[in-house]
Here is the input.
Amino acid sequence: MGAQMLEPGKVSLLQLEEIFWGGTVEIDSNSKIAVDKAKMVVENVINGTAAVYGVNTGFGKLASVKIANKDTATLQKNLILSHSAGVGDEIDRDIVRLIMALKVISLARGASGVRWELITLLNDMINIDMLPVIPSQGSVGASGDLAPLAHMALSLIGEGEVRYQGRLMKSQDAFDKSDLNPIILGPKEGLALINGTQVSTAFALAGLFKTWRIARTSIVSGAISTEAAMASHAPFLSEIHELRGQSGQIEIAKGLRNLLHGSPLRESHLEGDERVQDPYCLRCQPQVLGAAFDQLIHAAKILEIEANAVTDNPLILSDGSIVSGGNFHAEPVGMAADQIAIAISEIGAIAQRRIALLVDPALSFGLPAFLSPNPGLNSGFMIAEVTSAALMSENKALSNPRVVDSTPTSANQEDHVSMACHGAKRLNEMALNLAGIIGIEVLAGAQGVELRAPLKTSVPLDKLISKLRIEVPFLSDDRNMSLDIDLVIKSVLSGNFCDDLDGLSLSK
Here is the structure.
């Protein structure tokens, strides 16, 4: 992947996704003018007598304590050290890269009062793969993601640990091995680094990017299940969905029509089929998936805005004033994360019902019990369906909203918080659960279609089944299914099964 030229305030969702999947970054040098101007305002405060929060005062409840000019550098270092109080598992490198890139974008807007050298150091560390070790827990999503961002900042001053080209080591040791040097923080720079929503936003974006690939594959898995169940294609007719007007629903129905077009399987039961209507899990795919997709697209818009935002405090405004506000409050991110979580849960819930239908001979319209050619001696997909139910149930519990769970912190100075960080962090777990459900549906649906032989499905779905069979053979007799499921999950996460879907972009 090539370098992404980041123009602060105008970075696209596509660029952010490229960074997440491994692209390098380059900050637009034109932003240096605004950065230098804001830094000069901070320097003027240091040379004056006025007390300005974050520059020459204590922090939070200690804002009334004036700090001598000679101690401002120590103040910033102490801020980073004291706030490095995170716990929990190390954040994945891909998300750490995104956190750092988001902080570069925010600082380069020129409202934070930091030096250009600080921004370029962050930029360069991304590109040489010198990534801070950041614990995943410790943020309540207001006053910024303080603890995790403090751990990021530690690495810039030669403290803490990094993973340098994959190897865990002390930050200073990594600097010694590279061409970069740690930085001594100037006035306000420590605060600018740890104030902000970048960790919450990075978690949410990572969850969104993974979910989008899986969600697109759910259209394909739903189409395969439709064929395996010999269900009607009529509920996907365009006029039905145009009459309602919901954009996501219209797009999903179109995707299903394209995938199912020309299916000999469908042609085989156009006449004489005693079933009048299919169950909702088949018939209402456009309505349910469409609503989920609309939520994902809305969340994407919110997160794209947040990725370009200045979210530290105080801010240097265009008139040269330094003003305290509340852009660090991650309420928009928290609500977007809750939206994504609900969408994940619903996509998985309807897919799981399709799996359950396919394994049940009372509902599957002639398929053998548990999709086994020899049921009884073999259990077939019996427990694979149970696994999908377990994953679905986990996601239902995880989808409960987080943003409503505020608690006061910091001696009641920070008396309403968003809980955006752990609300966004759970999305990775939920996305992996969803990949498991959709992967099992792909396996079950393909098995069901092949059990309808000599009848064949549509060209796009036949192509997908052939792609699947390169890695996972047809289940004739029982075998260790976890190996099959693991293989297909990897393909789902890579987007390998949704190549034939046009349109459906997050960037609408």
